[in-house]
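Appendix B. Extra example for self-study. Work through it before the problem class; the solution is given directly after the inputs so you can check yourself.
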Amino acid sequence: MVGSLLALPSELLIACLVHVPAHTLRTCLRVSNRILSTTILTSPELLFVLELADAGLTEDPLHPAVDGAVITRRAALHARERHWRTFAFLRKFEVSSTLDAQDVQLWDSDGDWFAVALKGEGDVFVALYVVRTRPADGAGLDSDSEVPLPTRTWRRVEIPDALVGFMLVSELDLVVLVTISPDPQDAMRQQIQIQSMRLSVDGPHPAQPQPIEVTSIPSSYGPPTVHIEMSGSTLCVAVSCFWHTQTESVNRVHLFEWPSGRRLDDSFEQFLTAFALVNPTLFLQTHELPESAATGFCGRRFVYMAEREEGQEGRRVTMLDFNPGTIRWARRLLADQADGSSTVQLENATVRLLDADDAAGTRLQHSALTEPIVSELAYVEITSTERFDWEGVHMNGASVIGEQVDDSEDEWRLLEILHLG
Ligand SMILES: *[C@@H]1O[C@H](CO)[C@@H](O)[C@H](O)[C@H]1NC(C)=O
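Solution. Structure tokens for the complete assembly:
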């Protein structure tokens, strides 16, 4: 079977291998078959599959380069990775808002979207706003250009019921809402539902126009704390009411397939609200981070505000990059260092390579965390040269997003967006 596959003309072999997952391609390289290795290592299409996987990315269907030839798409990927690794943003711009600073309680960011939910009476969210963080089309990417940007407008997403949680999934043009409303079957209870809306325009998502029933909890418990994650078609919703565990435990994780709405398994009990879906079948439970740690994850990068330095305005931004491609890049960069140091100072960032923690320990410490984080993976720490006057930092696929409070107006923060491509 394998023999006959390799007898195919190389164009056909490539056409087959393009559909093979990156880790299988890596395995193919390891079996030391000359035809297979040569085919993979000389095919731009297959190298692109490997490079995307190394960067922890799937191709963004809205990226300007996506319709181009493989050579253009690879070049765009290489440029993007270079920008992220060296903190060389293409342009900086602001998105202003007139939202009341006191009410902004919950946010999410994905693709090139950013969203905030505003708290109303009774501990539920009553409004949800989304905004795009991509520079406007046609505005030059040259950061010196003075092309005025059109005002980016926040769009208010229609919420069918009171909101307790939400999540953006930009590649599906989806906003997942978790809502709470009186249970029509039982006056003493309230129902928790998932509602799928479009992200870019108003209205229900065409793939899942019906609400998905999550659970029903006693009305006396009040609104629950909710955490949502999605990976592939697995949608995971954790519901917790921490103050009412005595009579009826409602602290459970519910798993669904999206968009069918099919329940994947029996729900299981949990007491923590912090978790991540590493892939559609692997659930990772973490200890809850303090709420004050304004941080963000995107792919295999993690961003946070570094600690304030004595006598300095603003703080630097630190990115931890776990991508294997970045680790190899940093090793090459460091190999050129005469003194064998593990740190390189670039124009816009300091790059430091941290190998997996050994007994000696190179542990990440931050005042927001009570204990140092031990990493069993090597990673690259990229710290911006510039300091930013930001309250918190987020990121999505294309940008690092800083939150600024407008003290004078007592209005909500403006977002400062560093577009990295
Ligand atoms: C540093 O950042 C500036 C502004 O974002 C950019 O123009 C410049 O090219 C960057 N430098 C390097 C070496 O990447």
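Self-check: Residues 70-86 form the longest helix (17 residues). If your reasoning did not lead you there, revisit section 3.
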